[in-house]
Amino acid sequence: MISKVATGVARTVGAARARVTEWRAERQRVALVPTMGALHDGHRALIDHARRQADRVVVSIFVNPKQFGPREDFGAYPRREGDDLDLLRAAGVDLLFAPPLEAMYPDGFATTVSIAGPLTTSLEGAHRPGHFDGVATVVAKLLNQIGPDLAFFGEKDWQQLQVIKQLVRDLDLPLEILTVPTVRDSEGLALSSRNAYLTPAQLITAQKLNRILQDVASKAAKGDIADARSAAPARLREAGFDSVDYVEIADAETMQPAPVASGRALRVLAAARIGTTRLIDNFPVELST
C-alpha cells in the first residue's frame, strides 16, 4: 500500500517547470495526468498506471472554460480541491499543478489549436461545437508547460483520446500518450465526475447505458451494423433516457461511420441525457478473425 506523500502544489507555470527541471537533472521520467478535478477511482487508475511507468507523477487540475459550450455546465462542474488533494496524497502523486484561469488564459491570449476533419466535427464535435478546439488548446498548453515523457488518458473519452493522439503526432510533441481502460461501478456505469449530478432514480437508468451498448457491440460484431445502430436510440429512450444525441458504430481511430465490418477496429460510441445530465460511453466491437 502506498503511504501518503507530501504532494507539492504549483499554481504557476514557472513553479511547475522548476520542479520538473529538478527531476530532469536527476534523469527521472515524468508522467502527466491531466484532469478537471472532482477526482474519483477512474482518475486513481490513471495515477496508478502513471506511477508504475514513471519516476515522478504530475496531476493537473484545471476546469477549462474553452471546452464548455455556452449552455453547458461550466459553472456547476464540481470543484473540490481539498478532497482531490487528499486523494493525490494517498495515491503518491508528486505534484499537483492547479493554475488559476489567468495563468492559463491571460489577458491578450489569442491562440486556438484546432484539428480539422471528421475526427473533430463528428459525434461529440457535432453536438458540442468548439469543444475539441478547447480540448486541443488546453492539452497542448499543459504538455508544453510540464514537458512530460508520458501522459495518461482514459478510454471513456474515446474520441477525445484520438484527438489528443492526432495533436501529438501532428505537432511532433516528444512524449508518449498512454491509455487506461474505463473504470466502472458495480453495475457497469463508467465513472465520471458528472455522475454526481444523478439522483438515485436517475442512477438506475444510467446504469443501463453500458448494457445496451455492449449489446449493440455484440450485434455489430456479427455484421449487423446498420440494424444495431438504428435500433439503439429507441432502446435507450425505452430504458428511461430523456434524449439521445447519438449512437454510432465508427472506425476506432477516424470516427468515420462504419458501413460494414471491414476488419478495421470499430467502436460503439454514444451520448445520451437523463434530465440535465449528459452521459457518454463506448465499447469496442470484438470482430471475429
Automatic annotation (TrEMBL):
Keyword Cytoplasm applies: yes
Pathway: Cofactor biosynthesis; (R)-pantothenate biosynthesis; (R)-pantothenate from (R)-pantoate and beta-alanine: step 1/1
Primary location: cytoplasm
Annotated positions binding beta-alanine: 67
Gene Ontology molecular function: ATP binding; pantoate-beta-alanine ligase activity
Substrates-to-products reaction catalysed: (R)-pantoate + beta-alanine + ATP = (R)-pantothenate + AMP + diphosphate + H(+)
Source species taxonomy: Bacteria, Pseudomonadati, Pseudomonadota, Alphaproteobacteria, Rhodospirillales
InterPro entries: Cyt_trans-like, Pantoate_ligase, Pantoate_ligase_C, Rossmann-like_a/b/a_fold
Species the sequence originates in: Roseiterribacter gracilis
Record-given protein name: Pantothenate synthetase
Additional detail: The reaction proceeds by a bi uni uni bi ping pong mechanism.
Gene behind the chain: panC
